[in-house]
Amino acid sequence: IVTFEGKELIEVYHEVLSFHPVDIVTNRLIVPLLWELGKRWAQGLGSVAEEHFFSMFLRNKLGARFHHLGRNQLGPKLLAACLPGEYHEVGLLLFGLAALDWDYRVVLLGPNTPFSELPPVVERAAIEAVVLSGSAEAIPTTVEQELPRLCRSLAIPVFIGGQIANRYADAIADARAIPLGDELTLALRRIDATLNRR
Questions:
Q1: What's the whole-model pTM score?
Q2: N or C: which end of the chain has fewer CB within 10 A?
Q3: Residue of 82, 92, 123 lying closest to 187 (CA atoms)
């Protein structure tokens, strides 16, 4: 990553996936690597370019996997999107792939999705739950003022995942949304339990 060698990165990625299941690769390699790149940048040891290079690589790989895998699921339909002002979509893509593995059908909207766009999609696509993703830097008014309005306008569960769920757990619960945190397996178990899936 730090030498921006795309070909080598692709080779390592495919090699790791040939030996380990996707959830292991995600939880033990990709997520820790994203944390490490963010930490390197914060400490002045890395650059935004490194983080963007790896994020673009993951966006391409995960997006392709998402579209190839998302065809035969029979479970509840989830709408997955990033919060307004949130442009980091890798976590959302990782969630989408994990949800497909759990037999959910996923409508993926991506980064910076205005709340006003969600209710029409929920209605037209027969969505059974909304999952929103955000980093710890989310705008407080989004959670404290806009989220309660969104939850009141929908008759289905609204889940909030990512680092924002840890930082604003009380405000999320006050809005009548359900905080998921940033661990994919625990998040999916919570969604299963809320939707009464066995």
A1: 0.84
A2: C
A3: 92
